[in-house]
Write a structure and sequence with these properties.
mainly alpha
Amino acid sequence: MLSRVNERESAGAMITYDPNNILRIICRMEGSVLHAVWPQILVCCCISIGACFLRQWQGPDEYIITDVKGHATLGTTLAFLNVFRSNLSYGRYWDGRGQLGFLVRSGRELMRTCVTYTRIPEDLAEEDELANCLKEIKRLVNCLHHSIVLAVQNYDDHPPFDPPYDIEEHLVKDGWLKPDEKNAIEKAESERRDSSKAYGEPGGPDNKGRPALISCLLSQKVYWLYHKGWMSSAVLKKCDTQISTYVGAWMAMEKICGTPMVFPYTQMLSIFMVLFVFTFPIPLAHIFWNEDVPLNGFFINTFVSALVAFAFFGMNAVGVEIENPFGNDKNDLPVEQMMKRVEKDTASLLELRTASDQYDTMVRYREQLAKDAEDRAREEKKALRGGAPPPRPR
């Protein structure tokens, strides 16, 4: 029995659908390219109606174009170029999905490694310090994830590099950054702005490297585990590899959203597509003309011309829609859902730390130490009351 896929209607959520329900797919307008190409289809229909009037007025002998061989040759080449462009866009879309997967995997693995391979301290006060440090790592992992998504969603490759998102509103207010960390990041960004001026580059804010700064804060927290002796050098190296994967995925995502399709190819494709689609109804008016029932020619020519316009402009619109998959459109990748998934997973992994055998063993060991200390204190009191010297510590 085929399972039905629940279609999410929330804003910014990626559209899911049942691939077996063809009628629902055809009739659904949400996320459809019809929203983008209906003006071109309308223009093509108007041209086709005008071509039919021209054919009716000039007659079969004086009509300007009666053959579609030239359009057929151009249409085959144009269809290949259009499909090739869409395949390139889908490759970028799939690559973007892979980089988002690297972010999710690195966040989970980094948190799992820190939780699993850290030594449980014997001292209870030291244990509290370790627990707080792991919470800080969880916070900065999610902060790094959010900063990368904000960086690519608000990417701007033209100076001044000032993404239109506020660090206080999107990172500090939600608890991802502390005020002192925010001040340190802004100070570092101002230093980069001053160095850019020294090299003759445009001044102004430069926030493009904000995820790199946050990854540095995260690395410092992880290194503190090693510095305190709670983590071995091998585990530290593994954690650093996961942070490096985070930075590498961020750079790959910036490559996707910062490198559009080359302009000459897009320009040539657009010119030939406009010339082909908007002139194709002219010869079709002669081919589909019916001398006995002229109205049929109007309907058939308009319908076929609209289909051709939808096919070519629609395929091009699909390529444009998925060329940069990191926005908030219906057909973009579900980055918000993936960020929330990382938040839940890192929180769950942190909770599992107290459910390990290592933690239970250390708890029993602490209880035994406390019991031994109580026994020694009791014996010392008893010895003092009896006048005998207190027993030596075990």
